[in-house]
Amino acid sequence: MSRKRLLVVGVLLVALVFALPAYARDFTIAMVVKGAGNPFFEACRKGGEEATGELGLNFIFQAPATPTSEGQIELIDALIAQQVDAILVSANDPDALVPMLRRAMDRGIIVVAFDSGVAPAGRHLFLNQADMELIGRIQVQMLAEMIDGEGEIAILSATSTMANQNTWIQWMQEELKEPEYAKMDLVAIVYGDDLREKSYNEALGLFRSRPNLKGIISPTTVGLAATARALEDQGLSGKIALTGLGLPSEMAEYIRNGTSEAIALWNPIDLGYVSTYMAHGLLTGTLKGEIGEVVNVGRMGERTITEAADGGLEVVLGAPFVFDIDNIDEWADVY
Ligand code: RAM
């Protein structure tokens, strides 16, 4: 082929790529999670891989070494430079990430927060795992049943800045105002920062400083598994009741040996899967991101965009699910 012809063919090819409808381009979706080494987010990653596989998109998974917003901001900065098309983020702080996410949005990148939200200014949509009020209240209800509604209780959370845990804790405190909990006393809220060892040590600290403690709620999969291990190591299984949000795979042994009678969670694989479909809808223009719009979420069917409690837009995945001795075997290998 002559040089001139080559040039013409080249120009035509470039023109063709730009003329392709948005949905036919090779999009790259990046998932940024709270921190590395958390099996909950490994499950979200699976869902993201599944959805991007179905939709023919590229998928990048990134996690800061520890669950800090500084780490996430650095990663997002690099993803903007890489010109990814969409960022799915579970945030370590709802406000700290906003300026960097706005930069991403200004450059045409779609931002879908999931699991732990960012303020409306820093996202297009939020995927809410389940009704926040219900998640908060149900954990108090489960613990109350275990301790017959009486005694000192404590909460072992993730970090003090994470939006999901903080909202659930607010709803726990609301639930505790109901008359049936008059004899339950919330004596401490401590933070294990979603790090295994820190959570374990915070649990030991509670056992030491609160000798009358009757129960612990840990609304984080990392905190819950670490607290279960601490209770077992200290011979306190069955003496201090434990519930919270946990992965069946991590908690099965503790449910079987009675360290925790029941825990709750939703499906984290579906969380990664659905947030990917949401980003894809916005990327291809099949979704505008307006209240009342129906979102196609692949094998999960359809969801509708609604207004979130913070005034932004959200999609709700489903309802939390309770795991106990009767169903733990079915789920222990799933996530
Ligand atoms: C931890 C994380 C995550 C939360 C679960 C329940 O894995 O903090 O954000 O949703 O627990």
What does this structure look like?
By secondary structure, this protein is of the alpha/beta class. It has eleven helices and 15 strands. Strands 2-1-3-4-5-14-13 form a seven-stranded mixed beta sheet, with helices on both faces. Helix 3 (69-81) packs parallel to helix 4 (98-106). The longest helix is centred in the N-terminal third of the chain and has 17 residues, at 3-19. It is elongated and about 85 Å long. Residues 16-24 have low confidence and may be disordered. The structure holds alpha-L-rhamnopyranose. Alpha-L-rhamnopyranose binds at residues 34, 38, 40, 90, 115-116, 158, 164, 194, 220-222, 245. Residues 34, 38, 40, 90, 115-116, 158, 164, 194, 220-222, 245 line the site of alpha-L-rhamnopyranose.
Basic shape:
elongated
Mean pLDDT: 94
Low-confidence stretches: 16-24
Radius of gyration, in angstroms, nearest whole number: 22 Å
Largest sheet: 7 strands, mixed
What hetero molecules are in the model? alpha-L-rhamnopyranose
Order of helices and strands: HEHEHEHEEHEHEHEHEHEHEEEEEH
Class from helix and strand fractions: alpha/beta
Cα distance, first to last residue? 56 Å
Oligomer: single chain
Tally of contiguous helical segments: 11
Determine the strand fraction and express it as a percent band.
Answer: 15-25%
Spatial arrangement of strands, main beta sheet: 2-1-3-4-5-14-13
Question: How many strand elements?
Answer: 15
Tell me the helix content.
40-55%
